[in-house]
Amino acid sequence: MTNEKTVSEAINYRRSVRIFDAEKPIETSLVKKCIEQASLAPNSSNMQLWEFYHITSKDMIAKLAPLCFNQNAAKTAQQLVVFVVRKDLWKRRAKSNLQFLDTVFGKNNPKSEQSSREKTGRNYYGKLIPFVYGDVLGVFGWIKYLMILITGLFKPIYREVRNKDMRIVAHKSAGLAAQNFMTSMAAINYDTCPMEGSDTWRVKRALNLPFGAEINMIVSCGIRTEKGVYGERFRVPFEEVYKEI
After folding, report:
1. Domains along the chain?
2. DSSP labels for 209-245?
């Protein structure tokens, strides 16, 4: 695994592999390194509302495969990585960001002595994030939404403030992490297949996840067989999706 691919090479090499070679194990430490690189993905407000469950136990893989509807990618996987959204941890993550600001600027600085960057950061994680993520049974979300609608009549403003909006935001961030992971795996000639098809409630129960956790996707891992890639890659013509303005 010494000759790693370039980013472009890894992107072109990566395919959704449905059948993995049972005779070719992959190294847990290398997969873990790719998960570490997944955690470096860009994410909304640096809130990092994700967790990564690295499944190396063959018993657990066998338990999860039926919950992925016995897809070949799940049944033949050497390892699995479950990308989990933890929007429910927003208070803890906001606090972590504030603690990071303490290490950068120092603690308990008088407001009159704070730089504009420090004031912005502390207001962002201390006031704006609680406003955006805070909600009670969806009621506050609609109140915020009405406030945004009125304010938006007069100036550009961030509009995704309801609970369902923030769920989308958190899932997008987890998706970015998953892409980082799969590209990192491709760079070292390891193969993956992102699986959205699963009984997410039963997967949560199998992994003993809390109520507020949500499954973003399950990525199966291994080394492809000749039959592992189902045909040539198809994309609609690039001109159909590329718009230069």
Report:
1. 1-226 (3.40.109.10)
2. --TT-EEEEEEEEE-B-TTSS-SS-----HHHH----
